[in-house]
Amino acid sequence: MLDYVTDKAHDENRQGEAYAPFAGDPNQYAKRFDIESYGCAMNFSDSEIVASILHQEGFGATRNVEEADLIFLNTCSIREKAEQTVRKRLTEFKKLKEARKGMLVGVLGCMAERLKSRFLEEEKLVDIVVGPDAYRSLPALVTEASGGQKAVNVLLSRDETYADISPVRLDSNGVSAFVSIMRGCNNMCSFCVVPFTRGRERSRDTASIVAECRDLFERGFREVTLLGQNVDSYYYSPLAGDAPVNFAQLLEKVANIDPLLRVRFSTSHPKDITDDVLHTMARYGNICKYIHLPVQSGSTRVLQLMNRTYTREWYIGKVNRIREIMPDCSISSDVITGFCTETEEDHQDTLDIMAYSRYDMSYMFAYSERPGTLAEKRYDDDVPEAVKKRRLTEIVNLKNRLSAESNQQDLGKHSPC
Ligand code: SAH
Ligand code: SF4
Ligand code: F3S
């Protein structure tokens, strides 16, 4: 059961929280929706924003696809396989749709943004296509599609952050929650589709982030994860004369809400994480000593082709700095194997840097060429699948060893916060 009944006091500074009138009486819902999320935490967090927008318009959520009038898939484009999963799932709705006249299927998120109206041609059963910056128009699109028109809005925005929308906590354990602090990405790593699906980077109003975290704390939540593709480049300039806020300052404001609120964040781009952030982490017992610092490759030559803007040595320097300031800080990473032109020597460099960094956890992927990215335009995807797979296996084996060693060291310890 999803619990949409909230007892929080209305805060004049925050709008969009008045969905209580619909709670508790399913008969009042105009339509029932089901939303499934794929991809990264940003997508899961966006689904909570979408649920909130729909809820305010009198739509109620259901976990039961069979009784849904609207089925939404919040999709991911990061690798070919992520898209295939969504296409496969769509085929499962075919029978359901035939059986239930008027049922609508909507595709949200990164795949919607990437494929735009082509989605409607390729997947006939899709009625609505909505990109990540267009969720406010969802109720209007549902109305349009209910009238028999196919409905599309994939406009990207330079300023949409959904700052005023209080997310409905889907599948919540009541303890930890994601709080989105920024959207988009300006980095243009050559393998990555995100800058095209999520648009330009923009930071969310600081006061709305702190208010959301405080509200979560008051409702019993004890852990927030501040989310963004690149949290360390958070930078918010208030309009009315106040000083701008960077990520270290935001972290401090959230940590100051209450010592009992644990604070996490993800993801850090190695080039942007500053000493200021590291010192702020060290200063506050309630900021978890954990940094997700994706390396992608250990070879400077490959890093350059990836447009990551740091070298192997620079990354190692960052790991050293983290350990200097916080000797017990956990570090995790993302690694891509078999990127264009990657040699055995480059691969060894990746294994070396993983061992050097002693990652507590790594997320590892075989390179998947994405249409429209810089790498697709400039380089040949020339590492054979079998070689990518073999290298991936070697990296996974090393990761398992490093994670086991890290876990071993924690035996018998208690969490400091
Ligand atoms: N913003 C984050 C990562 C977002 S995508 C960052 O900068 O680190 C999550 C991970 O997916 C990336 O870190 C990368 O390791 C992986 N990834 C992205 N594009 C990929 C591709 N084309 N093929 C394989 N893995 C990819
Ligand atoms: Fe993609 Fe790079 Fe942006 Fe991460 S920083 S989302 S990998 S372009
Ligand atoms: Fe996937 Fe989009 Fe996230 S491509 S990884 S859902 S930003």
Structure description:
With 417 residues, the protein is an alpha/beta fold. It folds into three domains: 20-153, Rossmann fold, CATH 3.40.50; 173-288, Transcription Regulator spoIIAA (2-Layer Sandwich), CATH 3.30.750; 291-417, Transcription Regulator spoIIAA (2-Layer Sandwich), CATH 3.30.750. It is built from 15 helices and 16 strands. The protein has helices at 41-56, 80-91, 94-99, 110-115, 118-122, 138-146, 194-198, 206-218, 247-255, 275-283, 300-305, 312-325, 344-357, 374-378, 385-410, and strands at residues 31-37, 59-61, 70-75, 104-109, 128-130, 151-153, 176-180, 182-183, 202-203, 223-227, 235-236, 245-246, 262-266, 290-292, 330-337, 361-366. The strands form five sheets. The protein has a six-stranded parallel sheet with strand order 2-1-3-4-5-6, with helices on both faces. Helix 6 links the parallel strand 5 (128-130) and strand 6 (151-153). Helix 9 (247-255) runs parallel beside helix 10 and helix 13 packs parallel to helix 15. The longest helix is centred in the C-terminal third of the chain and has 26 residues, at 385-410. It starts with 30 loop residues before the first strand and ends in a 7-residue tail after the last helix. Mean pLDDT is 91; it is low at 1-24. The chain binds S-adenosyl-L-homocysteine, iron/sulfur cluster (SF4) and FE3-S4 cluster (F3S). S-adenosyl-L-homocysteine is lined by residues 78-79, 191-192, 194, 229-230, 267, 269, 294, 296, 334, 336, 365, 367-368, 370.
Q: Main traits of this protein?
A:
417 residues, alpha/beta, globular, binds S-adenosyl-L-homocysteine, Rossmann fold, single chain, six-stranded parallel beta sheet, binds FE3-S4 cluster, Transcription Regulator spoIIAA, 3 domains, binds iron/sulfur cluster, 16 strands
